[in-house]
Inverse folding.
């Protein structure tokens, strides 16, 4: 079995840009099979998914004790202009104490550490429960045929996850200083405001959707949607794109399109946000249409076995007292938590994720492996 560093390098060397897996799951499956895991490939569409389970001495799920799942993704975002990288993005390179390469921090180092943690744990004891891996190649993409689809399939056959550690890079400055114990919900809108196209010199014969939409958009951006709570920051709204016009400065456009997104707390529901947006747009007397996309509800894992195990493991290995946070973007934890599982996100530092010269601190890899191993020992 490779060390965490060597396995991370082997994974980084595979150019697994969403939704490609590029052989990462095959490599992981081969090593898990060698540890006694049963392997199930669960492809949906063009997405590769892996479900691997270590049953131990149990014969049925009902007498197997708790199910602890390590969840993650092998897909990565595109590297961008390769000339801007100090090292080739898909050639894992050790330099100045860091391992450089696309996906090194997000999240191939976590996958390697999880696998090596299982290897070390199972070499010394048999678990009083089951261990599983849920790995997808569709986390950085539209996230329909990945973890979401796998969870639907698992639920249909009665599989219940008790504890799930998602290997997203949660740490800020030092390994383990932050763990994610939940995430805000994400609700996106595609807004079309209709006007009447015309010549700018004959504005009385036209209706400019830019002029009519701007006050409403300004009100949307200035609205306080809620105050948050002790677990979540206030709901935020950001306009990400506005488009109108035909490319000529003497034509009043016939329509405006805008995209905006809410990251919302448990103080507000998606339906409440939709209704409030409609109230504002109606009050401004716009001729409009909105298409909504809810990519995830907010979730929170409160104080319990998993949170306590993670906090104790981090303190035991690093000496740190971790911050429990719900900040940041979305993760595949949003598809696992609704099943009733306790879910946390715990991984390396996130300062370089999705950036040119993404890297992970080499000195963090073995401690991360030890943290995952410690969590297994506590839960099983």
């Amino acid at each position: 079995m490779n060390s965490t560093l060597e396995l991370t390098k082997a994974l980084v060397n595979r150019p697994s840009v969403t939704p490609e897996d590029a052989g990462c799951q095959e490599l992981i499956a081969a090593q898990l099979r060698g540890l006694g895991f049963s392997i199930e490939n669960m492809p949906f569409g063009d997405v590769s998914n892996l479900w691997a389970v270590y049953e131990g001495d149990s014969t049925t799920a009902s007498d197997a004790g708790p199910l602890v799942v390590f969840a993650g993704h092998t897909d990565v975002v595109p590297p961008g202009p390769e000339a801007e990288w100090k090292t080739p993005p898909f050639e894992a390179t050790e330099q100045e104490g860091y391992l450089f390469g696309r996906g090194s921090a997000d999240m191939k180092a976590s996958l390697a550490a999880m696998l090596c943690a299982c290897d070390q744990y199972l070499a010394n004891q048999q678990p009083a429960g089951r261990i599983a891996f849920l790995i997808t190649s569709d986390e950085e993409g539209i996230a329909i045929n990945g973890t979401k689809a796998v969870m639907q399939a698992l639920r249909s056959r009665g599989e219940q996850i008790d504890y799930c550690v998602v290997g997203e890079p949660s740490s800020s400055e030092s390994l383990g200083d932050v763990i994610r114990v939940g995430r805000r919900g994400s609700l996106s809108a595609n807004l079309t405001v209709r006007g009447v196209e015309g010549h700018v010199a004959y504005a009385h014969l036209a209706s400019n959707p830019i002029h009519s939409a701007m006050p409403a958009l300004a009100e949307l951006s200035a609205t306080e949607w809620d105050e948050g709570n002790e677990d979540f920051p206030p709901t935020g709204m950001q306009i990400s794109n506005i488009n109108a016009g035909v490319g000529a400065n003497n034509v009043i456009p016939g329509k405006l399109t805008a995209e905006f997104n809410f990251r919302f707390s448990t103080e507000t529901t998606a339906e409440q946000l939709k209704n409030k947006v409609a109230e504002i747009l109606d009050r401004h007397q716009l001729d409009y249409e909105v298409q909504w996309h809810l990519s995830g509800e907010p979730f929170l894992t409160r104080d319990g076995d998993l949170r306590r195990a993670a906090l104790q493991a981090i303190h035991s290995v690093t000496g740190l007292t971790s911050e429990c946070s719900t900040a940041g973007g979305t993760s595949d934890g949003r598809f696992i938590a609704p099943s009733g599982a306790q879910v946390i996100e715990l991984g390396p530092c996130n300062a370089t994720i999705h950036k040119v010269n993404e890297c992970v601190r080499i000195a963090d890899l073995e401690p991360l492996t030890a943290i995952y191993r410690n969590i297994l020992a506590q839960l099983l």
